[in-house]
Amino acid sequence: MVNGLLLDFYGTVVEEDDEVVASICARAAASASEEVSADRIGEAWWRAFRAAMSATPFEPQRDIAVASLAAALAEHGCGGDAAALCDEQIRGWRTAPLRPGTRAFLDAVDLPICVLSNIDRADLEAALSYHGLSFAAVVTSEDVRAYKPAPQMFRRGLELLGLRADEVVHVGDSLTADIAGARAAGIAAIWVNRRGRPAPDGIDAAHMVAGLGDLVARLPRLRGGA
User: Fold this and answer.
1) Which of 3.20.20.10, 2.30.42.10, 3.40.50.1000, 3.40.50.10610 is the CATH number of 4-15+96-224?
2) pLDDT digits over 74-107, tens only?
């Protein structure tokens, strides 16, 4: 019996920052001392970003975004100020548009929901306020000093909902942070495949949706058990 939901936010409830990131990388590439593609800068940025998220001590996502972009700019001889370039990204976190089907899902669901997000609490709360959204509970990486897929995120969500791992389903768009993280914590997961990618082994149609709107019809079945 599913009595509650854990829910990723960026890429699941609201759109990811893909377009903003691409724009930042294009501007950085245009300032490089030697020819380099925006994709290569993006790869270097993501590589540094991902490494920083798993490093200790914990750093807020804002700081990681700026420091990892600065590292990518230096690697490829790009001009520009990383903090100034990231301002657009951070503004986007606070005003990201809702994904298709989000309103229909939130209007239909009658289960308590805890949002789990790697974005800093102030930026997440700004996004919630921007869209007039409220949830039974919210957990950010800042609260537990760790990023998904760390088990702390999922354990805190269960604590706040007062539920066991076998009483909830986690819904998210990242195969690593959301799906693998939830499963490692003993929680069933549904993958939001927003890009229409081929499903990897272990994920069947019953555990995959294109967006939250696709879950509306499944809510009665979820209430009866995942």
Assistant:
1) 3.40.50.1000
2) 999 998 899 999 999 999 999 999 999 999 999 9
